[in-house]
């Protein structure tokens, strides 16, 4: 759906490898999950020879960043890590102010509960700021405190509307996902009237699944079961 919203091709590959090489510095290891990423990006290059770089969203994880850099080096690609070691409170504010509209679909940290599922980053920003001050929670969720789903941003040609959400069914199958990106002109800020329409869609009933009912940091998921694209 996100690839469709961006009007870009999507490439996926099932991860068959395991995290065998857990050394700080990664080197090619047969059967490691990183090699699945290598093969996927190799396929992308074969279909799109003009591709020159890979964008990674790592902020603090050297483990992730070094593995992306290793794959890029072998494929003669440039790793783009623009978020690396950014101040997370500043970065969160910047993402919100730039027009990124994302909702929480997983919570797994002290102070976050299922009531926060479906809320936008702007709606939970003050809560995240407070939890960061009190407990050291990462404002951008870099420690796995929460996960989000993007409904709209300047890169989208269309926005995504949530029509139904329900209990998530989890499978032990994982995928690498690659979305090719090209420069676009950022869209104008959403008008107040359209924002109100979006908020009305979010008032639909939601059902959550509790993965771990920990009294301190319960883990809850929200599955978005029915989505559709609409014009911006």
Automatic annotation (TrEMBL):
It catalyses: diphthine-[translation elongation factor 2] + NH4(+) + ATP = diphthamide-[translation elongation factor 2] + AMP + diphosphate + H(+). Keywords: ATP-binding, Ligase, Nucleotide-binding. GO terms for molecular function: ATP binding; diphthine-ammonia ligase activity. Residues 30-176 form the Diphthamide synthase domain. CDD domains: AANH_PF0828-like (cd01994). Belongs to the Diphthine--ammonia ligase family. InterPro entries: Diphthami_syn_dom (IPR002761), DPH6/MJ0570 (IPR030662), Rossmann-like_a/b/a_fold (IPR014729). This is Diphthine--ammonia ligase. Its EC number is 6.3.1.14. It is an enzyme of class 6 (ligase). It comes from the Eukaryota. Pathway: Protein modification; peptidyl-diphthamide biosynthesis. It holds the Pfam family Diphthami_syn_2. One of its GO terms (biological process) is protein histidyl modification to diphthamide.
